[in-house]
């Protein structure tokens, strides 16, 4: 992967030299508010100068609706001198009437893919010329009326398996309908007396709005699209099965491939399925108790903000007390170790049933309740990615519950059971130092996530991804049965650790945890309330979308400091297992690949959304995850 090299910023003052030729001074500086002529018309609108390109002698400016264009100097007027000029008349459509966001031919970017933009563009292009001309004629004289400024919504890293797809330093994202609306209102002056032309134009606008609202969203398929969906639906369960069978081998080296296939009857155990269902129902009960804070989610496309009961840490404590009481009463938790395969298969069946229910249920959901990324029209892809954004049964939010409860708390339960299994198998009075480290490190990770459970409301999973097989399988199967491989490995292979090795591993874990928690706290606080006086020292780069990119604190060191902290912690989890086999290093390898892939998706998406602001951000924060390395 390439790095964003350190490049000089666009100069906005002085002279620019090319060889021995001195260029004239730049008339307008970056950040200046001036009046820019809309191409093809004599209308001027207030714009902000982004930068000046010396080679082409063009200014890149941004209009209030977010449109970026390159203008010549003669197309720009100073705001002070423009106020005395008479109003211009033109039959051209103004920026506020244009729903597609594009730059000049010399600086093209990917257009907006919102449903409103696509539908509006289709209507404009398909309308008969006479109809369009009549509409423009009726609106020949226009005046600029600034819209009422809507209040901005003040915006961490999800623990477990998925991080935000977008960089965590973005704030103040406006709701989708507001973004799709024009930033100007153009109204015809009522000089014709009868207002018939105006009424005709308004009826046409209403028709356009209805068609735009009904149009299906334009979906960009990820994870390999439709073929990729079939692949992941088959590969993910097969991979978990492979890991479970592999770690059960006496010698789990790669040389012993493939692992022996057990008898078919060994995959199923009705009691194991009963335990899985009972565990999920117990977590449902704890979730529904009127304990804990009612937190508000981020704005949806409709502008609505859902309420969530964030009592995950309470649920974890009660679960721990219940498990301890069960052990005190003679319950044998080593059953989890001896029936690991059957429990994994049972959890897989539950995830498939849940995903099927979610897909069928989504057929009755309103259009605004669907996730844009899961409404492609391809059955397999939508089943995998998830169609409905926030499926709820009254006030019970299925996605939020599964994200942080059964799988994450179950992860800690399985680890504890595996520690007991190690003591039983090895004849020990206490778990080995390596097993204790793995249990404590991962318990701290989960406890921190549940203590800061409210932070998950600003993550990619909750804000953008639909709830389908991908998240259901990840929450109920992937997390509890692959993230516990280090502890499972140590049951039969306890690794002795010297005092210096123990100290080094603990130090590595604490450093990683500090970076992880500090960076996530900075991000979440800034996202929710960027005007907080305690955050006034942080530096930002504004963007045309109303968001800001944080380039201060840990977010000024690398673009994903939370990824860096996560990787250091993952390394600390693997080191206690030694270097005899590759299997206990699975999580470290998988996580590294996952974060690099996610960073790549972030880069392409943010460059499309933020344009020149993202380029400036990359020049300011050069490294992606590891300082001076990557």
Topology, pairings included?
Layout: E1 17-18, E2 21-22, E3 33-37, E4 44-53, E5 58-63, E6 68-71, E7 76-78, H1 79-82, H2 115-126, H3 129-138, E8 142-145, H4 176-180, E9 185-188, H5 196-214, H6 225-247, H7 270-288, E10 293-296, E11 307-310, H8 312-328, H9 335-338, H10 340-362, H11 379-385, E12 392-393, E13 396-397, H12 398-404, H13 406-426, H14 433-451, H15 460-463, H16 469-482, H17 485-492, H18 499-528, E14 540-542, E15 548-550, H19 561-574, H20 586-610, H21 612-620
Antiparallel strand pairs: 1-2, 3-4, 3-7, 4-5, 5-6, 8-9, 10-11, 12-13, 14-15
Helix pairs in contact: 2-5, 6-10, 6-11, 6-16, 7-10, 10-16, 12-13, 12-16, 13-14, 13-16, 13-17, 14-17, 14-18, 14-19, 18-19, 19-20, 20-21
Written description of the protein model:
The chain is an alpha+beta fold and 630 residues long. The protein folds into three domains: 1-109, Roll (SH3 type barrels); 112-215 and 496-630, no CATH class; 219-248 and 261-494, no CATH class. Helix content is 47%, strand content 9%. The strands form six sheets. A five-stranded antiparallel sheet has the order 6-5-4-3-7. Strands 1-2 form a two-stranded antiparallel ribbon. 38% of the residues are buried.
Keywords for this entry:
630 residues, alpha+beta, SH3 type barrels, five-stranded antiparallel beta sheet, two-stranded antiparallel ribbon, 21 helices, 15 strands, 47% helix, elongated, disordered N terminus
């Amino acid at each position: 992967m390439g790095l964003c090299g350190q490049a000089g910023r666009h100069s906005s003052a002085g002279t620019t030299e090319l060889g021995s030729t001195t260029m004239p001074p730049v008339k307008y500086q970056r950040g200046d508010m001036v009046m820019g002529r809309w191409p093809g018309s004599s209308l001027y609108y207030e714009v902000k100068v982004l930068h000046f390109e010396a080679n082409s002698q063009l200014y890149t400016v941004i209009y209030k609706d977010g449109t970026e264009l390159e203008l010549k100097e003669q197309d720009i007027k100073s705001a002070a001198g423009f106020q005395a000029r008479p109003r211009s008349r033109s039959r051209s459509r103004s920026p506020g009437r244009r729903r597609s966001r594009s730059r000049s031919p010399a600086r093209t970017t990917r257009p907006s893919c919102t449903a409103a933009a696509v539908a509006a563009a289709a209507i404009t292009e398909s309308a008969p010329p006479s109809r369009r001309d009549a509409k423009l004629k009726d609106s020949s004289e226009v005046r600029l009326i600034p819209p009422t400024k809507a209040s901005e919504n003040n915006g961490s890293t999800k623990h477990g398996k998925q991080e935000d797809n977008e960089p965590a330093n973005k704030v103040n994202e406006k709701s989708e309908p507001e973004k799709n609306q024009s930033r100007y209102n153009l109204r015809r002056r009522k000089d014709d007396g009868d207002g018939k032309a105006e009424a005709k134009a308004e009826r046409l606008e209403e028709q356009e709005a209805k068609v735009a609202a009904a149009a299906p969203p334009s979906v960009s398929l990820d994870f390999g699209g439709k073929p990729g969906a079939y692949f992941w639906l088959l590969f993910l369960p097969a991979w978990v099965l492979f890991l479970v069978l592999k770690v059960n081998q006496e010698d789990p080296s790669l040389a012993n491939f493939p692992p022996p296939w057990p008898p078919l009857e060994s995959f199923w155990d009705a009691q194991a399925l009963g335990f899985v269902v009972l565990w999920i129902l117990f977590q449902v009960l704890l979730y529904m108790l009127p304990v804990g804070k009612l937190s508000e989610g981020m704005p949806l496309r409709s502008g609505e903000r859902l309420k969530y009961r964030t009592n995950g840490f309470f649920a974890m404590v009660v679960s721990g007390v219940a498990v301890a009481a069960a052990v005190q009463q003679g319950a044998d938790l080593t059953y989890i170790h001896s029936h690991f395969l059957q429990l994994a298969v049972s959890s897989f069946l539950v995830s498939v049933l849940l995903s099927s229910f979610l897909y069928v249920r989504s057929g009755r959901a309103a259009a605004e309740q669907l996730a844009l990324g899961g409404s492609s029209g391809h059955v397999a892809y939508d089943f995998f990615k998830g169609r409905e954004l926030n499926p709820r049964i009254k006030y019970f939010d299925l996605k939020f519950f599964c994200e942080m409860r059964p799988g994450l708390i179950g992860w800690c339960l399985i680890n504890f059971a595996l520690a007991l299994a190690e003591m039983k198998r090895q004849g020990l009075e206490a778990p080995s130092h390596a097993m204790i480290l793995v249990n404590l490190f991962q318990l701290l990770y989960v406890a921190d996530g549940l203590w800061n459970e409210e932070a998950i409301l600003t993550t990619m999973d909750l804000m953008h991804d639909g709830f389908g097989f991908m998240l259901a399988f990840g929450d109920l199967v992937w997390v509890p049965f692959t993230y516990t491989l280090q502890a499972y490995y140590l049951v039969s292979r306890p690794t002795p650790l010297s005092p210096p090795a123990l100290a080094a591993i603990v130090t590595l874990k604490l450093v990683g945890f500090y970076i992880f928690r500090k960076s996530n706290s900075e991000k979440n606080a800034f996202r929710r309330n960027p005007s907080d006086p305690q955050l006034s020292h942080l530096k930002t780069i504004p963007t045309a979308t109303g968001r800001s990119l944080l380039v201060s604190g840990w977010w000024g060191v690398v673009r994903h400091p939370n990824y860096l902290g996560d990787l250091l912690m993952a390394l600390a989890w693997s080191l206690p297992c030694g270097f005899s086999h590759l299997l206990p290093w699975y999580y470290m390898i998988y996580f590294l690949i996952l974060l690099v892939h996610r960073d790549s998706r972030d880069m392409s998406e943010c460059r499309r959304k933020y344009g020149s602001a993202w380029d400036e951000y990359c020049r300011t924060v050069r490294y992606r995850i590891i300082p001076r390395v990557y």
